[in-house]
């Protein structure tokens, strides 16, 4: 399995020029559609067939409307967008509503059928090209899922936006051994009240989440640094890496 983190900023990039959350699995699957999606060329965008969304927040869906309009002429239509019912409802009512962007999912046949919405529920697995993609619920300010991806003996887990706590610990322990765990760290410890209010991690919360696991992952990728806090967070995480194999993306 080839994993490319196209974007992972927790906001409008700042110094992290990659953009906001978008992860590419092999050539044709994306997790989230933040502005990092813009790293793909048009030809690469045309190869994308499946998009798995974690939640409805803008930094995870910002590029979805324009990405879909770029799909005219692609040989692989429609693109299937998987998300929880809450996320799909918010997208349909607030984005693909005929005002902000066309109601793309209403066209179901012919060359203009660009988009198919598909519900996914926590606990559900989808098999695609020998890959098992399983959604699991995490604790955030809106209904959110993380994804466990197993392929060719590798287990990659993206927990999306989440705060540390019982729910995250239970879900991760249930997933067994994880090769690459991608966890967020949005705010510094000084902003713990903001992290708690917005249901995000700080370095301290991230460490407590790791400490609560029955098995440590082989490596830890840290993501979703908020641009205003990115410099301070990088310094803190570099001085005290939460795991022996830590990569701050
Ligand atoms: N009162 C608030 N509640 C929730 N989010 C807020 C609030 N104030 C600012 N935010 C920001 O809005 C962002 C929405 O996306 P995130 O959850 O990634 O992170 C959130 C915070 O950075």
From TrEMBL:
Q: Which InterPro entries match?
A: Metallo-B-lactamas, Pdiesterase2, RibonucZ/Hydroxyglut_hydro
Q: Name one GO biological process term.
A: cAMP catabolic process
Instruction: Please list the GO terms describing molecular function.
Output: 3',5'-cyclic-AMP phosphodiesterase activity
Superkingdom of origin: Bacteria
The Metallo-beta-lactamase domain extends over 19-224
Which CDD domains would you find in this protein's record?
class_II_PDE_MBL-fold
| Name assigned to this protein | 3',5'-cyclic-nucleotide phosphodiesterase
Q: What organism, scientifically named, is this protein from?
A: Idiomarina rhizosphaerae
Note one Pfam family from the annotation.
Answer: Lactamase_B_2
């Amino acid at each position: 399995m080839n994993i490319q983190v196209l974007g992972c900023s927790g906001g409008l990039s700042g110094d992290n020029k990659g953009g906001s959350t978008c992860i590419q699995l092999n050539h044709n699957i994306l997790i989230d559609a933040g502005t990092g999606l813009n790293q793909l060329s048009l030809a690469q965008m045309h190869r994308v067939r499946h998009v798995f969304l974690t939640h409805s927040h803008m930094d995870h869906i910002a590029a979805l409307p324009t990405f879909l309009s770029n799909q005219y002429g692609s040989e692989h239509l429609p693109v299937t967008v998987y998300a929880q019912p809450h996320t799909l409802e918010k997208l349909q009512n607030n984005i693909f509503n005929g005002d902000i962007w066309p109601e793309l999912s209403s066209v179901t046949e012919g060359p203009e059928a660009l988009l198919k919405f598909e519900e996914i529920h926590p606990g559900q697995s989808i098999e695609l090209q020998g890959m098992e993609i399983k959604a699991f619920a995490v604790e955030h300010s809106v209904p959110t899922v993380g994804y466990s991806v197993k392929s060719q003996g590798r287990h990659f887990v993206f927990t999306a936006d989440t705060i540390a706590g019982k729910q995250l610990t239970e879900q991760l322990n249930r997933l067994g051994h994880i090769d690459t765990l991608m966890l967020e760290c949005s705010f510094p410890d000084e902003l713990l009240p903001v992290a708690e209010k917005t249901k995000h991690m700080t370095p301290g919360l991230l460490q407590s989440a790791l400490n609560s696991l029955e098995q440590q992952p082989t490596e830890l990728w840290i993501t979703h640094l908020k641009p205003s806090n990115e410099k301070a967070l990088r310094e803190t995480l570099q001085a005290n890496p939460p795991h022996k194999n830590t990569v701050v993306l």
